[in-house]
Write a structure and sequence with these properties.
InterPro entries: Bac_ResReg_Asp_Phosphatase, TPR-like_helical_dom_sf, TPR_rpt. With 402 residues, this protein is mainly alpha-helical. It contains 18 helices and no strands. It starts with a helix and ends with a helix.
């Protein structure tokens, strides 16, 4: 009887032990499933961290061990990424992020931004989504607890930029901008406006970007570096071009020309003059377009900018031709021919002869057209390029002469 009771007792103990194992297996299964679906959203079991049900401050020794492990994990993750094992690399980075979460909120945010940028660069959409959700969760938690400091907002803003969460980044920097204005901190206000302007450009939201850069230009020139002034004006020119606002573009280009004149940077003025001429043509203001092109040509010649001079002469010649001012067109193309010869640009010389011949054809001056095309053919033969083109033109002219 005693043996039967002992056997029964042992069976109960064994069965109880098995049930415990089943419970533990189920528990680990639940954790594993949760980690796979929400790897950063819940407290994680890690051999370097206390169990989840123990809430206490980590000791200096524990933190030191964790930081050492973080450095090791960084090396391992980068190695996996270099080998093309992206999934494995991000699994390692996610453990690293959980360890950062245990030791420092600011370090976690910085690490989230860094790993998120890698995810974006490698088209890892799911990992990027997990990281941006964690960053948003941190922001909301800190707002709820009234712990949103300027330092926290700055690192959150940087991480939002790195993870390409541009709307969040703009919202964060707008908050910082409001704080800077309330504190009457002009330097920080300018800094945050610059950041917001770049974010709107990254979003291709040119209307909002224009508002920002227009506001930046209202700052006293003594508070803005010369590089910043050039950047603001250049960005506005690009924005107005994208928005197809040539009149506003012209206004800002004139401001940039004034800026370059103050800096005595004459070489950049010529390109802007050409660009202004293009804008005036778009608006149908032909006389102003001609004036701008002529000013650009003078600058190009003064500073021996052969490419600029050639480009502008070609544009001016075409404009005269469209306006049926053929005498001026011929004079301009002759000038272009001289510039190309001085530059020993055979292709340029050949094209200049072609332009001249075409104008002479319009004027029915076939002798001059024949001469221009023949000279163009000589260059074409030396280059072994467009020989047939010039030969056909000469044949057409000869038929007219006969």
């Amino acid at each position: 009887m005693f043996q039967i009771k002992l056997l029964t007792r042992n069976l109960v103990i064994i069965l109880f032990g098995f049930s415990g194992i089943v419970v533990n297996i189920n528990s680990y299964s639940v954790v594993a499933q949760t980690e796979a679906s929400e790897p950063l959203a819940i407290p994680q079991n890690d051999p370097l961290l206390p169990p989840n049900n123990i809430n206490r401050e980590l000791s200096p020794l524990e933190k030191k061990r964790i930081k050492t492990e973080i450095e090791t994990l960084e090396i391992e993750a980068n190695s996996q990424l270099e080998q093309g094992q992206q999934k494995e690399a991000f699994n390692i980075w996610f453990r690293q992020l959980r360890l950062y979460r245990a030791i420092s909120l600011s370090e976690e945010i910085i690490a989230l931004g860094r790993v998120g940028e890698i995810a974006w660069q490698n088209n890892r959409g799911q990992e990027l989504k997990v990281i941006t959700q964690r960053l948003d969760s941190i922001y909301q938690e800190q707002k709820t607890n009234n712990n949103v400091t300027a330092k926290l907002l700055n690192i959150l803003g940087t991480s939002a930029q790195q993870t390409r969460n541009l709307d969040n980044a703009i919202a964060i920097y707008n908050t910082l901008l409001t704080q800077a204005r309330q504190a009457d901190n002009i330097q920080l206000e300018q800094q945050y406006l610059e950041t917001i302007g770049k974010l709107y450009l990254d979003k291709f939201d040119y209307s909002q970007a224009a508002n920002i850069y227009e506001e930046l230009l209202t700052f006293n020139s003594g508070d803005i570096t010369t590089t910043a002034t050039e950047e603001y004006l250049s960005n506005l020119i690009d924005i107005y071009r994208y928005n197809k606002q040539p009149q506003k573009e012209i206004i800002v280009k004139k401001q940039l020309i004034d800026y370059y004149q103050a800096q005595e940077d004459n070489q950049k003025i010529g390109k802007l003059k050409v660009s202004l001429g293009d804008d005036y043509q778009t608006l149908g203001e032909i006389e102003l377009a001609i004036e701008s092109y002529q000013e650009a040509i003078m600058l190009g010649q003064s500073f021996q900018q052969i490419a600029l001079t050639s480009e502008t002469l070609a544009k001016l010649g075409r404009l005269y031709q469209r306006q049926e001012q053929y005498t001026l067109a011929i004079a301009t193309y002759q000038q272009l021919l001289d510039v190309q010869k001085q530059a020993y640009n055979s292709y340029g010389v050949m094209n200049a002869y072609d332009r001249l011949g075409r104008v002479y054809l319009i004027l029915e001056d076939y002798e001059q057209a024949f001469t221009a095309f023949t000279q163009g053919l000589e260059i074409a033969q030396s280059l072994n390029y467009q020989v047939g083109y010039f030969t056909d033109l000469i044949d057409q002219v000869e038929m007219k002469i006969k």
